[in-house]
Design a protein that fits this description.
The complex is a heterodimer. By secondary structure, chain A is an all-alpha fold. Helix content of chain A is about 70%, strand content about 0%. Chain A is elongated, with a radius of gyration of 47 Å. By secondary structure, chain B is of the alpha/beta class. Classes of the chains: A mainly alpha, B alpha/beta.
Chain lengths: ~550, ~350
Amino acid sequence: MTKPTSPPDPAPLSGANPEPSPIDHAVHDACRHLNRGVVRHMTCWSALIGGGTAMALGLMYAVQGLRVPLWIYGVSALAAAIVFLVGCWRRWSNHQEAAGRLDERFRLADGVNAARTFGAERREGGFYALQKQWAERAVSKVQPEALRPRLSRRLAAAALVLPLLAVLLGFRPPSDAILEAERQAAATLQLGQELNHGIREEVKRHLDEAEELERELLDPESLKELAERLETSEQRADLMRQYAEMEQELAERSLALQQKRAERLMDEAASRLSENASSMALAEALRQKRYDDAAALLKKKQPDPKADAKTQRAQLEKLKAAASHLGQAAKSFKASAGSSGANPSARDLADEMATLSEQLDAAARDYDNALKKALDEANKNDKLDDATKKKLSDCQGQCNASNRELQKKLQQLSAFRKASLRLNQMRRTLSQCQGACAGQCQSPFAQKKAGAGSVDSLNNQFTPEDGQLDAITGVKSAGPSQTTIEEASSGAGVSGRRGAAPAAEHARQLESFVDRPDVPESLKEGVKTYFESLPQTPEETLAP
Amino acid sequence: MTSMTAPGTPPTSDDPQDAEAAAQRFVDTFQRTRDQIRRFIVGQSDIVEHVLIAVVAGGHVLLEGVPGLGKTALVMTLAKAVQLEFRRIQFTPDLLPADIVGSMILVERGGEKHFEFQKGPVFTNLLLADEINRATPKTQSALLETMQELSVTVAGTTNRLEPPFFVLATQNPVESDGTYPLPEAQLDRFFFKLDVPLPSEDELSMILDRTGGLQPPTIEPVSQGADLIDMGRTLRAVPIDAQVQRHLIRLVRRTHPDDASAPDSVKRFVRHGASPRAAQTMLAAARAKALLAGRFHVAREDVNAVAAPAMRHRLILGFEGEAEGVRPDDLIAEVITGLR
């Protein structure tokens, strides 16, 4: 886009003469009229192009029922300005070009151009003077305003109408569906803000309420970061996706706490302990997963050093029984875990519990033996020597230490359980958030309204205890059915359904599953990998 | 060749009045001569004008046309109108160079014999070389050398021709047997090549009326050789604007197939474009056109108007152009059109 080069504009013929010559005057007039015409033309064209651009872009929105955005007018105005400037720059006439146009338009046979050139070159006299006179006579008869290009009426009308239509298009309201979609988007945006705020508050509350040990397990910084990372969006699917991802993250963390295996071990221990009447309370506490209470009960079983020896021995008996049952439960759990190919960490936990129980049992036995010896010695001598006292003290200390270790383990399990519970509560909240995003329920952080549905009704399949889905067991033939079942003899009829039909059905289900926006990517990948690894055709299945 | 009227002040003077007077004399003389010729030659106004332009510009003209179109009559009428010495040579295959330029002959004078140069018919002001393509190349080149040098050298002696000297050659494009087409280098020496057209019905009727009577029209001498020389000087003083000159140059350049701006047809059909001499020719002729149009400067339209007669014989067509019968005039028209 280069402008054709034109020769340098010659100096006015007048030179030192202050009065411009008729030629200069005519050329100046011609230049002015030409450039006015250029401005008028380019104004029309730029309005036409700007209006056309706005109309084209605006129609793209209008046919979709959308409101025409303001930026379209900005872009169109910019396009129009560029067209105007470029057009003016390319078509702008200098005096040289104006002289050429004069010659061409009025058939002056290059006379004006020649006169200007000769004048600029200071060629005077003789034929040059005659030529100048000839040119002056010629330009005196012409009307430079006739050079102004005539503006096409159609162009002018189009330049007026098109921008007007484009502006009117901007006032057109969007369709009801779009208004509804905008309302939805705004509502989703607000809902996202509320939910994010609520989730952050809940995370903060959980972390504030958590004890020291729980807090360590919960990893507060990363939890806060997860909560802070949440963003709001106008798209419900985006919100659902991020809540699902966070829920998945929390589920993984909960799983990492191995709470389930520890609870199974404790259930085993509770059943063992319930065989002994003295350990019923401890068994009940373990069964009810009140591990803090269990630790307190275990502490109570610790012999009181201020009590007499008989009382202490009786207390030790109970402690030994509890330790023995705990140890047996741990060993039994370990054996079953080993045979069922359970996670090694489960076996480690059982090992640890078994070791602690055995240590406590052994320490209690030592203490009991030491008490027995001390009792015998006291009966003989009415007095305990220093070695016996020391032995008693050591055994007591050992027993207490072992007991404390076991208590500590139980407290640790309690912390694990509580942390896991907190994570599951957060998961539940996130699940409710997804439900709220899907429009199935209210926001878990909002005031419940009458008739707007309930979160609980849809999410109670999550058991807060373990965070896993319960298998909902129905009663056979008890509920209404959409299909009827006809009795038929086995193998007596011909099936009208081809074997490929279920496969296609499953494939559709798979596709709908992996296309859902709220399913985390990691799960999608897993499902894809699984189904891709399956044989694709019956022939493959049948192949040896 | 005495002067009928004294030639005016040379237009090299800076006085506008002198220049205007010279221009007026040019136009008057030209129109008088043209009017005289038109008394006998019917129609063919372009041919007459171009012949006159070539003559005042000091150039030679090649007239091409079938026999009987008045080529010879035109030249003879011109000679009478400008009151120039006129000779005619009918070119034939057996014509020798000496028959044109002259030869040394043995002359006995005062009892002594010596060689004396016997001037040939070329020693004239206006030479009609009728059917120039019928002579052998050797004879043709003898004339063409004279056209260029305005002198004849025989036996080591150079004899100058008296100015003005114009050659108006004719050739018949139809008959090709026994002819020797002029080489390109020799064609280039002609100022114009004019294709003489067939007269129209009305023109033919007028021809019959004028020439069929007892008394054919008489041609009065209206100018002289000195007038022609004076007109030639006047021509050279007509100014040309740099842009118009650039237009002329681009026009010539565009006839060359290796020029980037040349039209596709030129690149395809032309082997060699017009020479710089063509540009000189066009400039001189355009100046004459300008003066005849009442202007004192050369315009693009003047250049365009003389492009065809000045360049049509200077375009050398390639094999494809010859085979397809491409007319140089069409190529020149395309070159002009592309420049507008």
